[in-house]
């Protein structure tokens, strides 16, 4: 949708004007500025599209443009341009990405249902249900009807539609990118509000889709509107860097020679950072001056194994910087980004960053999910695309548990804002937000596993349920039903504990815990349940040492030695984590072995 849109007389609205400008002047200026005034407005779009998809039919694009132009006639943007310039620009962004004809048609028509008399049914009749689904997915809910819930309802609807066809999100990102490019005509308050929403939701969505070619520009324009002084400072730095181009040329030349000597066929080119990336690293590192290291990209013409050969050539030429190597080929990022990252002491002893990847990896890094449309290949794409959209299906899973759209939007923002980690459980890789705990993992493995989670083993050691997991951890989850610890279960599992809400990170876990307590009206967990579960926890900890208890006598002795009035109080303390189960078991084993 166009956040800059102003409706003309065709829809009964007043024509907006810029300060001090007469309506007639604005109309004349806009007509003169319209790129389609003297040439075919669709020709550039068609050329771009057919340059990537040579067999595409331009007739359907021209028909979609004609309908869009007719429907939007009389509407103007706040910049004074005819409204049709916006959907045409959105379609051009999609064409530059290499999207298919269906996406471009939907982009041209994406605002017609919302802003004109053109109905969704008419659109479906004219262009088919696929285009209608894409347009409906990016059509906003009416604020007059939905009030404050309109934004949350719209995003929820868009995510659900994207679950069926991810091209909904690509059109939305292109729509927002063009709006951000033309945000300067808005008031300062509007610019900040729109930029903030872009930063919170759409840029993370773009990152999850892996479309870096869009994300870089969105990042920079958000920096411009939220931190204009910092944007100007970084831009001056980039413009004024003395000897930068000559130094990079020297680095590239030396790298090419080293690769040829090692018989690695690869293209080497400078890979400068965009403004936001420089600013982020500057702030994160607490640097007073812009922190901007020279960087090159090595794109090998061959299989992934050639990337490691290229890495050897680069490290043979320049000494690697310790701790600065990352292998995203063996362990891809969650958006399937793959590359080798290293830093070396380059010419003149300056630190140089090096990215090494195959041509296919490079395409995927630039275009993400859009690469499936720009570079269609036979076979193998379905599985990769499903893996690339696993996060979206996870969001759709907990979307159904959201009590209302506002809760869903807040949870989505939190989920997108979090960094992610990957852990291993039940023989598979599981993606969780950074700082997640075994309880988050248990709910990710299944609602029943989460509700009845009792204990966890992290990398072979029993750990509190509140423990923060780290990337690469191997985790085992034990439920109340798994507690085969030599003691008889006295009652059915009682479900989650409210204190879990203080440390769980994932929206899914939070919603499921709240759901359980909303559905169960009985008071909090009883003392007898705490005793039972504390006993089960000790049983699990004893199994770590291949030990067990034939009676309660050793526990009674330990409770007395630790100063507890009785065994039940000790077991409640274990349940409430006043004392760690591992500590109880250590002292228990010492006590038993010493008495023997």
Automatic annotation (TrEMBL):
GO CC entries: plasma membrane
Record-level GO BP terms: guanosine tetraphosphate metabolic process
UniProt pathway: Purine metabolism
HD domain segment(s): 83-180
Boundaries of every TGS domain copy: 417-479
Pfam families given in the database record: HD_4, RelA_SpoT, TGS
Source superkingdom: Bacteria
Family: Belongs to the relA/spoT family.
Function field: In eubacteria ppGpp (guanosine 3'-diphosphate 5'-diphosphate) is a mediator of the stringent response that coordinates a variety of cellular activities in response to changes in nutritional abundance.
Protein name per the record: RelA/SpoT family protein
Classification of source organism: Bacteria, Bacillati, Actinomycetota, Actinomycetes, Micromonosporales
């Amino acid at each position: 949708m166009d956040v800059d849109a102003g409706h003309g007389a065709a829809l009964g609205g007043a024509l907006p004007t810029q300060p001090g400008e007469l309506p007639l002047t604005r109309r004349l200026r806009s007509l003169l500025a319209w790129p389609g005034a003297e040439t075919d407005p669709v020709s550039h779009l068609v050329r771009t599209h057919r340059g990537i998809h040579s067999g595409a039919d331009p007739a359907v694009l021209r028909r979609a443009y004609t309908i869009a132009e007719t429907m939007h006639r009389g509407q103007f943007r706040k910049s004074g341009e005819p409204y049709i310039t916006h959907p045409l620009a959105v379609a051009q962004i999609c064409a530059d990405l290499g999207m298919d004809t269906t996406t471009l048609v939907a982009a041209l028509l994406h605002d017609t249902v919302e802003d004109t008399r053109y109905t969704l049914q008419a659109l479906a009749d004219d262009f088919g249900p696929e285009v209608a689904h894409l347009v409906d997915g990016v059509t906003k809910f009416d604020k007059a009807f939905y009030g404050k819930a309109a934004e949350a309802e719209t995003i929820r609807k868009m995510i659900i539609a994207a679950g069926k066809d991810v091209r909904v999100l690509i059109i939305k990102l292109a729509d927002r990118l063009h709006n951000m490019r033309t945000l300067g005509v808005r008031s300062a308050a509007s610019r900040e509000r729109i930029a903030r929403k872009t930063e919170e939701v759409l840029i993370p969505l773009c990152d999850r889709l892996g479309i870096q070619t869009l994300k870089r520009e969105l990042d920079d324009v958000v920096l411009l509107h939220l931190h204009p002084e910092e944007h100007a400072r970084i831009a001056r730095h980039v413009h004024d860097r003395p000897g930068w181009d000559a130094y990079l040329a020297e680095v590239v030349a030396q790298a090419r020679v080293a690769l040829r000597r090692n018989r690695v066929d690869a293209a080497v080119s400078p890979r400068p950072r965009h403004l936001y990336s420089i600013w982020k690293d500057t702030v994160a590192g607490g640097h007073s001056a812009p922190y901007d290291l020279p960087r090159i990209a090595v794109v090998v013409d061959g299989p992934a194994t050639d990337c490691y050969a290229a890495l050897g050539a680069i490290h043979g030429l320049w000494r690697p910087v310790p701790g600065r190597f990352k292998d995203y080929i063996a362990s891809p990022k969650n958006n399937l980004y793959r590359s080798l990252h290293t830093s070396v002491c380059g010419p003149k002893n300056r630190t140089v960053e090096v990215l090494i990847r195959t041509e296919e990896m490079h395409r995927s890094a630039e275009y993400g999910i859009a690469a499936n449309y720009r570079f269609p290949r036979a076979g193998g794409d379905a599985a990769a695309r499903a893996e690339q959209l696993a996060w979206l299906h996870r969001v759709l899973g907990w979307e159904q548990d959201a009590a209302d759209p506002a809760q869903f939007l807040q949870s989505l923002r939190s989920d997108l804002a979090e960094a992610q980690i990957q852990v291993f459980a039940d023989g598979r890789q599981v993606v969780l937000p950074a700082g997640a705990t075994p309880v988050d993992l248990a709910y990710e493995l299944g609602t029943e596993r989460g509700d009845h989670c009792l204990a966890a083993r992290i990398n072979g050691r029993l750990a509190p349920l509140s423990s923060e997991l780290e990337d690469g951890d191997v985790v085992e989850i034990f439920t109340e039903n798994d507690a085969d610890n030599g003691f008889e279960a006295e009652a059915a599992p009682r479900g989650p504990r409210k204190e879990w809400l203080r440390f769980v990170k994932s929206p899914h876990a939070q919603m499921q815990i709240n759901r359980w307590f909303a559905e169960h009206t009985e008071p909090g967990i009883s003392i007898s349940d705490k005793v039972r579960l504390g006993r089960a926890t000790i049983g699990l900890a004893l199994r770590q040492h291949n030990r067990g208890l034939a009676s309660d006598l050793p526990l009674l002795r330990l409770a007395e030695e630790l100063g507890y009035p009785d065994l039940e109080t000790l077991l409640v303390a274990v349940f409430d984590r006043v004392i760690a189960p591992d500590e109880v078991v250590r002292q228990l084993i010492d006590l038993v072995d010493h008495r023997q």
